Sequence to fold (148 residues):
Amino acid sequence: MSIPVELADLRSKTGEYTWAYLLTVRSDATPHLVSLSPQWSDPAGSGSGSGPVILLSVSSGTARHAVAGATVTLCYPPLDHDGYSLIVDGTAGAADDGAGHLDINVPDGKQLIRFTPTGAVLHRSAAPGFANSATGCANDCLPVTPEI
Fold:
């Protein structure tokens, strides 16, 4: 179940995790999953009015899948057995080195792609006997909310 959330607190929420999986779809419609360390960036001087994006250093094949499919998902796994996964849907595109990303170290053989979040949810499987969460989700889902 997708729970609409405000994305204003997503940057601080991703800071609670150490790494993520990127899920893309190959041209033959099969899933492709890689682990990586996402990095936030504020496009400087882009003039587009766009907000912060997540930058991903990936192989050329993964970059090709991500940009061709455009819609991708990041899944930050829980830090402990009872923790929540942070699932972030978004769009992918080629990173523009002229948009303030030159400080990102991209290893040889890798490409930089831009991930723009469109929605996020905290999720974990429900315990046996669990009926529904306060949001109506049949699993133990929580919307990402600002911390006060």
